[in-house]
Design brief:
Elements: H1 3-13, E1 18-20, E2 23-24, H2 25-39, E3 46-50, H3 55-66, E4 70-73, H4 80-90, E5 94-97, E6 119-124, E7 134-138, H5 139-152, E8 160-163, H6 170-182, E9 185-188, H7 194-203, E10 208-211, H8 213-220, E11 235-239, H9 245-255, E12 259-265, E13 271-275, E14 287-288, E15 294-296, E16 301-305, H10 319-325, E17 326-327, E18 330-339, E19 345-350, E20 355-357, E21 360-362, H11 364-372, E22 377-387, E23 391-400, H12 406-415, E24 426-429, H13 443-453
Parallel strand pairs: 3-4, 3-5, 8-9, 10-11, 11-12, 23-24
Antiparallel strand pairs: 1-2, 6-7, 12-13, 13-14, 15-16, 16-18, 17-18, 18-19, 20-21, 22-23
The structure holds adenosine monophosphate.
C-alpha cells in the first residue's frame, strides 16, 4: 500500500478520530487533497520544505504523498549554502519556506496507484563530515517503519503524541506516520522549548513521547515540571543516543511510564533494535527490531540486513557512499556494540569515536555513563585528545551544576567501578555542548577543539 492509499484507508477507518488538534481524519482528507491540488506537482517531483513543525507542515507532507511527489524536508538550522546544496542535489522544482502562503487548488484525485516501492521522502543526513547525503525512503519502507514504531512503542488507538522532533528528521516523520496508522493525534510543537512542551503535554493530554534523550533531559529537569499534570503520558520512547541510567531514573520518577523503550536506528534503515524495558536495563538497545536482522562484524560493527522492510535501497546519487556503507547485502552502521549474557545489544559508540589510549580501547559512552551519575553533572561528553605518550588521552567535557569541581569528578570516577585507565585525565567545564539538530552531541567539534588546545 502506498502512503496515499494508507492515508485514505486511515480516514475511512476512523473518520471521527482526531488527526491534529481540532482536525478529524474525516476533515483531513479534503484539506490534503486541496493542498495537493495547489502544489501543481507531478508524481516523482521533489518538493523541498524548510519549515518549523506545524499542522501545515504535516499537511504538506500528506499533500506530497497524495500527489505522489517526494517530500524533501530540510533543516532550518542549515546554513544557506548547505540548503542550496540539498535543494539542488534533490532537484527540487518547488521550495516552500516559512511564511510562504500555501495555495489550495481543486481537490487532487490522489496518486493511489503509485507503486509502493517508489520514493516518498528524501531526507538529508546531518553529515558530521563531508557533504550531506540524500536518503531516499520508499512508501513501503516508511509505512513499515510507522507500523514497527506503533507496535514496538506500545501505541494504542487514539494515542496522542507530541510532535517535537523535527519533521526533517526520521523520528519526526515516523511519529506522524505511526499516528495515522493507529488513529492517533499528532500535536506539533514548532521549535523545542521544554516549558512549552510540558504545557502542551498537559493541555493536549499527550499519551506517548518519542524524543531524543537530551529533550527528555530538558523536560525532567525543567523548573516547572512539578507544577504540571503529566499523568496522561503512558509510553516513552527515545532514539538518537543511549540514555544514561541517571536520566532513565529521572524519567521514571517524572512520568511513571507503562512502556519505556530505547529505539536504536538511523535515517537509512529506520529501526535496528529495540530495548524494550529501559527500567530493567537502562540504555540497553535490546533485541533486533521486528523488521530487522542484525549481526556484529569483525570489530564489533553493527550491520543490518538490507532486505528488512524498513531499509532504504542506497543513497541518492552517491555511489561513493553506497560503496562504503552497503556491502554484501548488509548496511554497515559505523556503530560498535556487543551482546550481554542475555543476548541483548549494547551500543559502545562509533567506530570513529573510539579512544585508543595506551593501546587500550575506551568507549566514550562507558565513561560518560559513570560521570552522568554524579549529581553535579548536567551533561558530559568524553573525547580523545592527542597525547605524545598515550596516543590519545581521555578528556571529559562537562556541563556542571555551579560549584562542582574537576577534583570532585575525578574522586567520583576513582570510587566508581570504572577501570582506572579509562578515567579522564582532564576535565573541561563548559557552559554547553555542541549538538546536532536531532540533539546528538557533536563529538567531532569537541575533538577538533582538543586538537587546537594541545
Ligand atoms: P541518524 O541517521 O541521524 O538518526 O543517526 C543514526 C545513528 O545515531 C546511529 O547509527 C547511531 O550511531 C546513533 N543512534 C541512533 N539511535 C541510537 C540509540 N538508541 N542508541 C545509541 N545510538 C543511537
Amino acid at each position: 500500500m502506498n502512503l496515499a492509499q494508507s492515508l485514505l484507508a486511515a480516514c475511512e477507518r476512523h473518520p471521527e478520530a482526531e488527526a491534529f488538534p481540532g482536525i478529524s481524519y474525516a476533515a483531513l482528507l479534503p484539506r490534503v487533497a486541496r493542498l495537493a491540488g495547489g502544489l501543481g506537482v507531478a508524481p516523482g517531483d521533489r518538493v523541498a520544505v524548510v519549515l518549523d513543525n506545524s499542522v501545515e507542515t504535516a499537511l504538506l507532507y500528506w499533500a506530497a504523498q497524495w500527489a505522489g511527489a517526494v517530500f524533501v524536508p530540510l533543516s532550518w538550522r542549515l546554513p544557506e549554502e548547505e540548503l542550496d546544496y540539498c535543494i539542488d542535489d534533490a532537484g527540487a522544482g518547488l521550495v516552500i519556506r516559512d511564511g510562504d502562503p500555501l495555495p489550495e487548488g481543486p481537490e487532487h484525485a490522489g496518486a493511489l496507484d503509485r507503486d509502493e516501492s517508489e520514493i516518498s521522502l528524501l531526507l538529508y543526513t546531518s553529515g558530521t563530515t563531508g557533504r550531506p547525503k540524500g536518503v531516499p525512503r520508499s512508501h513501503s519502507a516508511d509505512r513499515a517503519g510507522g507500523f514497527s514504531q506503533a507496535l514496538q512503542h506500545g501505541y494504542l488507538h487514539a494515542d496522542r503524541t507530541l510532535g517535537a522532533m523535527p519533521l526533517y528528521h526520521t523520528m519526526g516523520i515516523h511519529s506522524l506516520l505511526a499516528m495515522h496508522l493507529v488513529g492517533g493525534c499528532y500535536v506539533p510543537q514548532a521549535r523545542w522549548n521544554p516549558g512549552e512542551a510540558l504545557r502542551l503535554i498537559e493541555a493536549e493530554r499527550i499519551t506517548s513521547l518519542y524524543l531524543a534523550p537530551t529533550l527528555f533531559y530538558d523536560l525532567v529537569s525543567h523548573n516547572s515540571v512539578a507544577r504540571h499534570d503529566l499523568s496522561s503520558v503512558r509510553a516513552l520512547g527515545y532514539a538518537g543516543a543511549a540514555m544514561t541510567s541517571a536520566l532513565v531514573a529521572q524519567c521514571v520518577e517524572v512520568f511513571d511510564p507503562g512502556v519505556f523503550v530505547n529505539h536504536y536506528g538511523s535515517t537509512e534503515i529506520y529501526t535496528f533494535s529495540i530495548g524494550g524495558d529501559q527500567v530493567a536495563k537502562p540504555g540497553c538497545a535490546g533485541r533486533p527490531a521486528v523488521n530487522a536482522r542484525l549481526r556484529l562484524g569483525p570489530e564489533g560493527e553493527i550491520c543490518v540486513h538490507l532486505s528488512g522492510d524498513e531499509s532504504f535501497g542506497g543513497y541518492w546519487h552517491r555511489p561513493d557512499a553506497d560503496e562504503k556503507a552497503l556491502r554484501d547485502g548488509w548496511y554497515h552502521t559505523g556503530d560498535i556494540g556487543h551482546l550481554d549474557g542475555d543476548g541483548d545489544l549494547w551500543i559502545d559508540g562509533r567506530l570513529d569515536d573510539m579512544i585508543i589510549s595506551g593501546g587500550e580501547n575506551i568507549h566514550p559512552l562507558e565513561v560518560e555513563d559513570v560521570l552522568a551519575g554524579h549529581p553535579g553533572v548536567h551533561e558530559v561528553a568524553v573525547v580523545g585528545a592527542p597525547d605524545d605518550r598515550l596516543g590519545h588521552r581521555v578528556v571529559a567535557v562537562v556541563v556542571v551544576v555551579e560549584g562542582t569541581t574537576s577534583e570532585e569528578l575525578d574522586a567520583y570516577c576513582l570510587a566508581s567501578p570504572l577501570a582506572r585507565f579509562k578515567r579522564p585525565r582532564k576535565y573541561r567545564l563548559v557552559p554547553t555542548l555542541p549538538k546536532s539538530a536531532s540533539g546528538k552531541i557533536l563529538r567531532r567539534v569537541l575533538r577538533d577543539e582538543q586538537k587546537e588546545s594541545t
